[in-house]
Amino acid sequence: MKDKRILTGETISVNIGKIRVGGDHPPIYIAGPCSVESKEQIMEAAFALKEIGVDVLRGGAFKPRTSPYAFQGLGIQALEYLKEAGEAAGLPIVTELMDEGHMDVVMEYADIIQVGSRNMFNYSLLKTLGGLNKPILLKRGMCATIQEWIMAAEYLALHGNKRIILCERGIRSFDNYTRNTLDLAAVPIMQKETGLPVIVDPSHGTGIKELVAPMSRAALACGADGLMIEVHPDPPCALSDGHQSLTFEEYSRVRKNV
């Protein structure tokens, strides 16, 4: 039996406070470090990025790392730092929820809940998030087809939550020159198929900081509803993803030239 789709392609825009994402609204700019490492780090990032013109502050509290020996995030303490920084700079915040056990605390602190690439197939989590009245940033799974990504969004919508922002962050392919293969064709396809806003993450999409600027321009040229970029006060000293993170100065140039 053919699936009955809830997301039929009718344009849906998502409210984040006074910000509207999707439809005819201007692109949204999300930026911040991969991980919240300290109160000082995220405060510095929040005020610098606010000055540059960022709309939403990002930062990881619970980090799903490939290696169990890699930095796993500061957890609840990171959420507290992130929220304090966002409020001080006047920016809403987005952070990743990894499992249902942290649902209540992430709900308390985050303005947008991110479902990361590894959790796009976590249907139990998607069902639970579908019952919330909070924007969900749904990243594409690293090996997900278009149809699988659509169905992940359907899980959220079926359980009542259409406040969904999709994020193309690259998929694995046979080529390993870049971290992932950024699939920009997915942007207009997903907009047409679901009607949802689609943003692009060129940081994870390429894993190469020099490619962030051209891929940001390409993303907006093909109609993306925004960009999410990793920015760190001191990328060489970052505890995660420093190699693909931009400095404030580098991000400012990207922001001015997209």
TrEMBL record:
| Domain DAHP synthetase I/KDSA per the UniProt entry, residue ranges | 18-253
Q: Which residues form a coiled coil?
A: none
> Keyword Iron: yes or no?
no
Signal peptide segment: none
Q: Gene3D superfamilies of this UniProt entry?
A: Aldolase class I
InterPro entries from the UniProt entry: Aldolase_TIM (IPR013785), Class-I_DAHP_synthase (IPR052899), DAHP1/KDSA (IPR006218), DAHP_syn_2 (IPR006268)
Sample GO molecular function, one term: transferase activity
- Keyword tags: Transferase
Q: Which SUPFAM superfamilies match?
A: Aldolase
Q: Which GO terms describe its biological process?
A: aromatic amino acid family biosynthetic process
Q: Which PANTHER family match?
A: PHOSPHO-2-DEHYDRO-3-DEOXYHEPTONATE ALDOLASE, PROTEIN AROA(G)
Protein known as? 3-deoxy-D-arabinoheptulosonate-7-phosphate synthase
